[in-house]
Amino acid sequence: MNAIQLKAPAKVNFRLDVLRRRPDGYHDLRMIMQRIDLCDEVTIALRDTPGIRVTCGRAGVPDGPGNIAWRAAEALLALSANQSGIDIDIKKKIPVAAGLGGGSSDCASVLLGLNDLLGLKLAPARLMEIGVKLGADVPFFIYRQNAIAGGVGEKLSPVTLPRDIWLVLVNPNIHVSTAWVYQNLQLTSSREENTIPCFYGSIAEVCAVLANDLETVTMGRFPVIGSIKASLSKAGACGALMSGSGPTVFGIFADENAARRACSILKKNDRWFVTVAKTLSD
To answer: Where are the alpha helices (DSSP H) in the chain?
Structure first.
């Protein structure tokens, strides 16, 4: 086998608590992370000529060493006796800089795919150790199941969530810098690490736990996020929340029909990226 194609799923955060600022400048978090069926397509191929090539063709996504997927390939190639060249082609379906983890998911797919192609046989835990140095969300996508995440995102434990939750995703086609959001987050004190449940049996239980400490920061700079939340609620969402550092907002709907009706309403604003998505189970 000298080529592999993988789907790299996006994620939403049903919960994102910022607990404290760490001495290293990062933040300790507590998150409920859910994979969804909006996916990039990542094709990885080995070739005889040395070097790493990444192609994407999406504005805002570099093709060379500035791409997190390129750095993932470099990290695994350094561990391999096989010094083949590597071609990576990424077909983006996930909006860029959107709070949906698209770049991290692409990176995780490269680590998983090259682990097979290069015959490294690295355990998932070792891939996660490599991945967290590239991006805080990368270990979650290597974990390949929904999770409660702690630390900067690398401490993962399983969470049980209802199957097949239907979502409407709305992105106002603006880019938000995660670094900027954290730099402007005002933490008055460290938060208590009260545990949150690891079992959710219904959509109502998921909606009851929805919270994102970053939402106020991003919404203060981009008030359209509040408008999108209101539009989703008016269209019938059981709950609505910004994902990650934004600016994508998701609404949770009772079923597929309700989600598709809401999607049709919200698509009338042709400045927004709007799509229906479904959650992925473990």
So the answer is: 68-77, 102-117, 124-132, 138-143, 178-183, 203-209, 215-221, 224-234, 256-266
0.85 cut: is pTM over it? yes
pLDDT tens column, 190-201:
667 777 999 999
Burial class of residue 215, CB neighbours in 10 A (0-12, 13-18, 19+)? buried
- 152 shares its domain with 235: no
Give tens-digit pLDDT for 144-188.
999 999 999 999 999 999 999 999 999 999 989 999 999 999 886
DSSP label at 226? H
Same structural domain for residues 170 and 150?
Answer: no
Chain-centroid distance, C-alpha 29: 15
On whether both 64 and 199 belong to a single domain, the answer is: no
Supply angle C-alpha 164, 169, 171, rounded to 5.
160
Q: Report residue 146 as tokens.
A: 């929904």
* Measured distance CA(72)–CA(19) in Å, rounded: 29
Q: For residue 279, give the DSSP letter.
A: B
Q: Which residues are catalytic?
A: 11, 137
Residue 1: its pLDDT value, please?
65
